[in-house]
Amino acid sequence: MLVVIYTRHGEVLRLRRRVPADFWQSVTGSLLDNETPRQAALREVREETGFLADHGLTDSGVVNRYPIHKAWRAKFAAGTMENVEHVFSWSLPAIDAVRLDPYEHTEYRWLPRDEAIAFASSRTDREAILKLVPEGVRGEG
Questions:
Q1: In this structure, what are the phi and psi dihedrals at residue 115, rounded to the nearest 5 degrees?
Q2: 83-136 pLDDT, tens per residue?
Q3: Domains along the chain?
Q4: pLDDT at 137
Q5: 83-87: long-range contacts at Cβ-Cβ below 8 A with a sequence spacing of 24 or more?
Q6: What does pTM read for this prediction?
């Protein structure tokens, strides 16, 4: 599951993972037993940022399938080689302070859309930002 968080002014939240080093991403996570993708998205947003996304979380309808990065294979059941990623978005009125989970992430940045795309370490994250964050949103008004 992947959640792109952005502001109405076009700033996109980037989270730097602890492992692997220098891996920047949106909020991500896996479903727990009997959890829906939406429930997982809400839980992961809360755990990774401290935000409560109960209102406004949008399911994009995009579901990606890709090989699991070797850095995370141990987190999955033995023999699981493919990840199924449900993509969500959540728009905030403005930049807000993030409360990081220090076991997962070391820092965060709010970046303009194009910089956020360049900062994204995964293809599916870049594609999600490109598709879900409106282009050319700038300044007040």
A1: -70, -40
A2: 889 999 999 999 999 999 999 999 999 999 999 999 999 999 999 999 999 986
A3: 2-132 (3.90.79.10)
A4: 59
A5: 85/1, 85/2, 85/28, 85/124, 86/1, 86/2, 86/37, 86/40, 86/41, 86/59, 86/62, 87/1, 87/2, 87/3, 87/4, 87/59, 87/60, 87/62, 87/63, 87/124, 87/128, 87/132
A6: 0.90
